[in-house]
């Protein structure tokens, strides 16, 4: 008998440099033997040096991609990345309700590592209103959690308080990533509405971290598509991102991508 085929859809921006966005998501899905599908929200001209240009797609083009995938290929899990404008956010929220997607991982992408905006300032309120209540999993880094909660996050206790706030705003599972904190130990935190769980790892000293957030959230999405629990999904995603950063490819002359094939070479 054939093995079951699991399918995941990413709704995100294209990174021509291949390290983040749609490209990171599809490479990660594939690495976990999950069939990857995509709806592109915006095309970026991007490399390891930064984002040179952003071209959002017409709403109709985004809608048609989502409809084509949804009506025929029913994804087992969905991930969202760069959503860019309030119009795109409203469309994605409406489609999520229409197709009754429940296993949805929302990565609140706001700025690229070099500082280029990937979500317009005017779209933040729409993101909070529409995306947070839909999120089965939300994967903010610390600066994104600050914007979404309107609070400063300095201590570990602040991170916990922000996670609770995000849960109150409608998120089922809050995964607060620790990449932007100080210190040689890196802690990713999960809040499930009752308890906190921690995943600790050694911080790797490297500039090659382009796309870590996308890759980590895509690994969680792939595991959810396979029917894993959030706790199992984070276990695997954490091991995956650690290996991908540790064995980075050293390509390009700026912040290079992680190695999506590191774990299963
Ligand atoms: N230097 C590092 N060493 C080991 N793991 C890392 C490192 N940097 C990030 N990670 C891991 O990568 C994942 C993403 O974390 P981070 O907080 O950097 O996300 P991000 O800022 O959203 O990424 P991006 O820049 O792609 O948006 C987390 O699981 C984090 O622990
Ligand atoms: C298209 C795209 N999505 C997300 C990120 C965040 O890493 C990026 N740099 N580019």
From TrEMBL:
Gene Ontology CC annotations of this record: cytosol
Keywords: ATP-binding, Kinase, Nucleotide-binding, Thiamine biosynthesis, Transferase
UniProt cross-references to Pfam families, sorted A to Z: Phos_pyr_kin (PF08543)
Presence of the UniProt keyword Transferase in the record: yes
GO molecular function: ATP binding; hydroxymethylpyrimidine kinase activity; phosphomethylpyrimidine kinase activity
Family: Belongs to the ThiD family.
Name the record gives this protein: Hydroxymethylpyrimidine/phosphomethylpyrimidine kinase
